[in-house]
Amino acid sequence: MASDILDVFNIKEEARVQPKKRARSENDFGSQSKKKKHAMSRELYNLIGSNLPPVAVEKGFKFKDKINSGKASPWVWAPFKNEARSDDLELHHWVKGPVAPSDEQRSYNFAKYNTSLDIPSFSKEEYDEKLKDMSEDWDFEETKFLFDLARDYDLRWAVIYDRYEFYNNKQRSLEDLKERLYSVSAKLLNSNPDGTRDVALIKGLESFDKKQELERKQYLDRLIHRAPTEIAEEESLVIEARKFELAAKKMLMERAQLLQLLDSPQSSASIEQYTTSSGLTQLYNSLMTVDKSKKRKPEVPVPPQLGPNAIPHTQQIQQAQQQHLMRQRQGKKSSLSQKLYGGKQEISQQQAQSEVWQLLQSKLTAEEMEVYGLRFHDEKLQPGVYIRSQKLSSFKPAVQAKVAEVLNELQISMKPTLPTANVCSKFDQLLQSIATLIDLKKQTDKLSGEVALIKSQKGIE
């Protein structure tokens, strides 16, 4: 390998730097065994040669090396006073580092969390002047007792309602206590002699409605005591509502795309740059690039269906096409039945040429052929024996489930009980009619949803 590299660079073998040889001593056996442990492979040595690595490797710290971090910090058992207490009690706690005499007068760290609500207070004269006419059911002593409880328990209404026991033994509900406290507080703040008024706080206190609070609690009580069936019904309604929202969004998006395609493009820039051949080539390349970037779905030929974004004229055309197809099917079925039952319609040329058909026609009447179950089929039949009910019309799984539901409501089985030819023919017509009605109902629901959406957007009731 090394000789090949030297040949590429036109370097002679003699120009290589050869390491100096020294005589092997007796102490070299131990060092040689140690070097072999960390020796590099022969291929790597042949590539590198006698060149040293460009980066010097230094010995770093080991994982368990002890780091001298200095002297340990002392802890002192220092006294302190909590400003939240009114008895000037002196307590002690551990403090890191030496404590200076000035630090002992420092405030306690957790005293700032001892906060209280600023609940307004009033005197007997203020009550008689401003608050006496608010309610005849409340007096000064009971109102003062309520404000003292609210101040002691920081407006924790559950505790206030539990501790509320006034000497007049009047039954007060929690809503009565809230209404009295909020109305009196709003009156006091509104008539503040200092002139400072918190408008947002006053509006919040005046907005309390006792009747609305009772209704809210009744609704919550009903919500908590719901039955499992009601919960499942609500969840299903929420899911259906989300489906309707997604369908409406999809319909609006498809409509916007359709309108964007139908609207003629408005030219806002100059077209002089596209009058030359180079400009047309550049325009063609840009359009091809945009066209390739769009992900196209594979075009599969499907029968035209009534989509949610179709315009009313298109819906009328599609409904007319569907009705025309239904009439053609019914006409084919009626003509086939008339041929089978020997009506006045003309018989096909192949059947007229058949000797068996002529013989039966001359010997048997239509009623006798119906009694004996004799029929002549125009279509090609499959070989072997089959059941008439197997030839009934089948639909997509979603439509089939709805057809089964309608038949269940009509108390009709999915398969005819006595599958004669006439019964199977009528039953197939029934299935076709049910499927057509389901499709029409689906389109009607879409149209009614679209009309309701447009009315809600335009504000029409």
Detailed description of the structure:
The chain is mainly α. Among the domains are: about 1-50, no CATH class; about 75-115, no CATH class; about 125-225, Orthogonal Bundle (Arc Repressor Mutant, subunit A); about 310-380, no CATH class; about 395-460. Helices cover about 55% and strands about 5% of the residues. Strands 1-2 form a two-stranded antiparallel ribbon. A hairpin with an 8-residue loop joins strand 1 and strand 2. About 0% of the residues are buried. Mean pLDDT is about 75; it is low at about 30-35, about 300-315 and about 340-350.
- Structural class by secondary-structure content: mainly alpha
Radius of gyration: 49 Å
CATH-assigned homologous superfamily of the domain at 124-223: Homeodomain-like
Instruction: Tell me the name of the CATH class of the domain at 124-223.
Output: Mainly Alpha
CATH topology of the domain at 124-223: Arc Repressor Mutant, subunit A
CATH architecture of the domain at 124-223: Orthogonal Bundle
What characterizes the major β-sheet?
A: 2 strands, antiparallel
Name the shape in a single word. extended
Multimerization state: single chain
Query: Treating each run of at least 4 consecutive H or I residues as one helix, how many helices?
Result: 18
SSE string = HHHEEHHHHHHHHHHHHHHH
Tell me the β content: under 5%
User: Helical percent range?
Assistant: 40-55%
Distance between the termini: 91 Å
Mean pLDDT: 75
**Widest β-sheet, arrangement of strands:** 1-2
